[in-house]
Amino acid sequence: MLSSIAKLQKFIKLEVERGYDNRAVVGGLDKILPSWESEARSNRLDEQTIQIVIDGLKSYPNLDPEGRAGMLNQLLSRLPQGNAPAEGSANPEAPEPAQPEAGPNNAPVPARRGSARTYPSSSSGQARPAQRERQTPETPADLSGLQASLKVIPGIGNRYAQALSGLNLNTIEDLLYYFPRRYDDYSQLKPINRLVYGEETTVLGTIQSIFTRPVRGGKMQLTEAVVSDGTGSLRVSWFNQPWLAGKFSAGTQVVLAGKIDMHLGRLTMNNPEIEPLEQEHLHTNRIVPVYPLTAHVTQKMLRRIIYQAVSYWAPRLPDYLPEKVRSAVKLVSLSTALQNIHFPESQDALDVARWRLAFDEIFLLQLGVMRLKRNWQVANAQVYEVSDEWLQAQIEALPYQLTGAQQRALADIRRDLASGHPMERLVQGDVGSGKTVVAALAIAMVTQHGAQAALMAPTSILAEQHYRTLARLLTQPAGDRPAPLRPDEVRLLIGDTPEAEKEAIRAGLQDGSIKLVIGTHALIEDPVTFQRLQLVVVDEQHRFGVAQRALLRSKGENPHLLVMTATPIPRSLALTVYGDLDLTVMDEMPAGRQPVSTYVLRPIERERAYSLIEAQLKQGRQAFIIYPLVEQGENGDALAAVEEHRRLQNEVFPQFKLGLLHGRMKPEEKDQVMRRFRDGEFHILVSTTVVEVGVDVPNATVMLIEGANRFGLAQLHQLRGRVGRGQNQSYCLMIPDREDAVENERLAVMAETNDGFVLAERDLQQRGPGEFLGTRQAGFSELKMANLTDVRLIEKAREQAQQLFMSDPDLSAPEHELLAKKLQQFWGEGRGDIS
Fold this sequence. Notes:
Layout: H1 3-17, H2 33-42, H3 47-59, H4 65-78, H5 158-165, H6 172-176, E1 182-185, E2 200-215, E3 220-228, E4 233-239, H7 243-247, E5 253-263, E6 266-270, E7 273-276, E8 287-290, H8 299-313, H9 323-329, H10 334-342, H11 347-378, H12 388-396, H13 404-417, E9 424-429, H14 435-447, E10 452-456, H15 460-474, E11 490-493, H16 499-511, E12 516-519, E13 533-539, H17 546-553, E14 560-565, H18 571-577, E15 582-586, E16 597-600, H19 606-618, E17 622-626, H20 641-652, E18 658-661, H21 667-678, E19 684-687, E20 700-706, H22 713-720, E21 731-735, H23 741-752, H24 756-767, H25 791-807, H26 817-827
Parallel strand pairs: 4-6, 9-14, 9-15, 10-12, 10-13, 11-12, 13-14, 16-21, 17-19, 17-20, 18-19, 20-21
Antiparallel strand pairs: 1-8, 2-3, 2-5, 3-4, 5-6, 5-7
Helix pairs in contact: 1-2, 2-3, 3-4, 10-11, 11-25, 11-26, 13-14, 14-15
């Protein structure tokens, strides 16, 4: 190793061990420069490296401890190894310098492998934004380093690594794909005399004065500075950052970024980001990424770490997307997309990067669901055929006529069961559209051949509801034909089922004497085995995780799957996330059901709502009152169920009996309250949204929703569906927290239509896909950039995925090797059932 490099590394190691106190050399680290520069030139060290060292060590005394740690790491990354002259770039194979696990005050030290660069100001005095190299190195990097723990980054010790793990940041690759939640555009520099109150901007100027003084009786310290740019002056202040006065002295040129405020009629900046003009501007003078944070992780720290990871790794990543796909859709490379999604060079570059990464997510999701669909299409399943006469007799035995939508759904299911391949069908129907009847007929088609069926519901009360309905429908004779099932062949298995009865049900399922079991997650517990499970029905599918559905299906041999949901799912969402399922939409309501009269009331009109409820109760009806929160304190400006239940019972409806239901209650407590309401013991049920899917109370005619602006339209529609299930006119009253014209306009859509699909499309546009899917949906949780309202993007991704899948469904071609690995990573192990 060159003597000048060895000597410099020795001094830096000593400085690190001392905690960056600038005393490794008497007088400061910059005092070694004259003798070191002479020795470096005699070693024939290249001029660029010499200048980097000189510039870095000259600025060292003026940096805070965190800045010193970062500067030394960057310096080490640029030093050559061995006896070869330096090339002025980081050497990825350089040994790690001796460093403590964390910087001062547990501040993380940036990774040394980035190629951070310093740019001088231009001749006009304006700072030039840093431009990063976009070309990929000729020699590919060893990508195994992407899976390295973040603790390999100098300065990230156990405590800071643990804090980062709270953000699911555990490896270098996690940093690359930890996308900003928003961006602050500080790239437009403005002279001080043109600043406007309230705007976010970047200011370049010279510090005229800076000092720190105690405030609030000495409990806090305020650092104040006056910055001028020739057009005017701006007063700037920071709380509890006294070290700034030592780092920035009068006469220093700086870049400030933040929000323009006002104090005593003068424009000010409070707690802005500040950097010396000559540094690369990660936090100012550019479009700045803003990341989600957690405790003990600051925006500056995280931004600097991600910058180092992106600078080194993004240019070295091979692109898994085939060239023909990229060119067909005009996509930028993965390297460029990752660099610009974190540190965009312009708004256009950011938009292009977003498009590329969003396309990737939908493309990978589509390939995955196509693979799932192919897997079950080629699998064999038992054939179940029924005659037209038999089916007609079952339909005629029903207590009501089927709608056209129910008949179409039944035809789809009948065709699936006779196909010889496992049925994989999603029946999507609004609340009260008659999905349970369709499921009952599907069960009858299978059980009449001696096979077994299981229906899994998310709650005990909903399982009981299905049990009563299916027992009534399936144990009644069809004309002169016997009933599809005997009463003893239909059983209910939930957590509250007595142990002796559970044993009897398990035995009946094992020997085949029980043909249909309805239950909750108790169905997938290990002791439950079936003799011949051939049909699995899952209700409210988004309430169950992938693993739960897979466990139930594993109890049979390629059983048919029927999934039901009362949540109307927009077409773009259904095509994307449920692409592996055949979709049946039930968009008609049974005859005789009256639409629910819906009104949006102002907060001051609450008494009108109470009067309507009281009038309905006096007629023998019941009512729901829904609140967004369980208890006060979760959010001070919203009404909460516990406190309001007490007030309503004591002050508003003292002559009636009110029940209370919320998500913090134990499952058995919730079931008991819902049963008592269903049986008429409670006149009013005060609840949070746990009743969204659950008890069927035909006698309930009023649904009052407080804080309605806090819910999505799809959720409000689900809540409204809890009433109007009987023959009496029903009402849904919505009261927002405040009189907000925009919110009230959004809620007014509920009053305009009872069509769940219209509301679903509106909700998708306004609130995104989270209203429709559980958080455990496989695949969906991987969508960080894709907007599922962007039908154009979805269609392009589907088209490209279909073309690729038709030509190489197994991705076995050499050019698809990287894509196959990425697809496996995207879907993960054991994620085979998205629906």
